Amino acid sequence: MKSSKNMANLQRPDRARMEGVCYTSVGIPVNSRLMERLEGEWDVDEEEEFKTIFLLISLEMVLCPTQSLRLACDLFPALTCAMNAASYNWCELVLNKLMESVASFARRFYSTGVAGGCGGCTIFAVVFYLDKLDRFPVQWGEFPRIKVWNLNQISLATKEDRIACGGDYGVMGTMDVAYGENHPKEARDTDGPCRVN
User: Fold this and answer.
1) Which of left, alpha, beta for 141 (phi over 0: left; psi -120 to 50: alpha)?
2) What is the pLDDT of residues 23-37, one digit of tens each?
3) Contact (Cβ atoms closer than 8 angstroms) between residue 100 and residue 93
């Protein structure tokens, strides 16, 4: 496959070793060289390579990030889907990887009392937290919700919810909101929630 051959020339795992008959890899590094290749010039016949590199970077940096700048080994098979990426359920993959990362974090934390971070796409968790804060909504009814939460909005909401001297969060509390319904803080003429059109 042309794409695999070209990708192997671009990036090889930094460390790989033979252990008996098993090959162990630490993942594909996502570094400036790979980013420069993605941002470079592409010919029409290089579509598969472009899509594969784009998917590799998207998986590592946004959808399924790890604690290092390397694509996790268990995601290598996903790179074979690059040409038909639109026909796959990436949401399920992202959620599964996030849940695996959270479970791994919890195991480390509860066994030692300390853990050094959690991989996985936390964008969903951040937007879900922000939308549930007991405050007036940011462009409620706009989907996907990630579109309305820019860095200024995120910064403002987190500052409002931060406990002054402890650094923890929880000043504002949360409220029960349901996507697809009117927000409880918005004015309405009815006695209960109704669907947003």
Assistant:
1) left
2) 556 788 899 999 999
3) no
Q: What is the pLDDT of residues 124-180, one digit of tens each?
A: 889 989 999 999 999 998 888 889 999 999 999 999 999 988 778 999 999 998 888
What pLDDT, in 10s, does the model give residues 80-102? 999 999 999 998 999 999 999 99
**One-letter amino acid for residue 127 of the chain:** V
**Three-state SS annotation for the chain:** CHHHHHHHHHCCCCCEEEECCEEEECCEECCHHHHHHHHCCCCHHHHHHHHHHHHHHHHHHHHCCCCCCEECHHHHHHHHHHHHHHHCCHHHHHHHHHHHHHHHHHHHHHHHCCCCCCCCCCHHHHHHHHHHECCCCCCCCCCCHHHCCCHHHHHHHHHHHECCCCCCECCCCECCCCCCECCCCCCCCCCCCCECC
Rounded to two decimals, what is the model's pTM? Answer: 0.67
Hey, where are the domains in the chain? 2-92, 122-197
Peptide bond into 144 cis (omega under 30): yes
